Amino acid sequence: MGKVKRRNSPFSPFSEKSDAEILLPPYIGEEKTGELSGNRACTDLLSDDLPLVRSNAKPGAAALVEVLKTLRAHPMVAWCERINSRAATVGGRFIRFGWPGCPDVLGQLRGGRLLGVEVKAAKGRLRPEQSAFLKRIRPAGCVALVAKDCRDVLAELGPLKKVRIE
């Protein structure tokens, strides 16, 4: 009887990869060398020396992932979500998702204040409508910032601290 080839995740017990070929994510404080990037990566967000290494070919997308991870780990942030704002034509109809100037990330701080974060790559610049939206929500007591990496988030919200939740 022939071998049945299954299409499964590499982490599936039916995978044809050996245990040595399956890469597990590093734990806090452990270092891992990526096969694709060849650069050092660290998952410890509480570390004083956070690496600036990004392996994504799109620097804006890599910055967004980094900023979202930092926001979700921050004790001041109650919740935050990526807002996909774009436009498309579906069935001959023009549909806009979001609004002009909508920030990349919307959220709420634990005290109830709105959080609006516009994420840009290292050389990225705000469009006029993005700048106008951030200026519009600041006077209402909202936290509005432009972040190019996790350091910008930490500078605005304060450092990450280990918090005991009871």
Automatic annotation (TrEMBL):
<dbReference type="InterPro" id="IPR011856">
    <property type="entry name" value="tRNA_endonuc-like_dom_sf"/>
</dbReference>
<protein>
    <submittedName>
        <fullName>VRR-NUC domain-containing protein</fullName>
    </submittedName>
</protein>
<dbReference type="GO" id="GO:0003676">
    <property type="term" value="F:nucleic acid binding"/>
</dbReference>
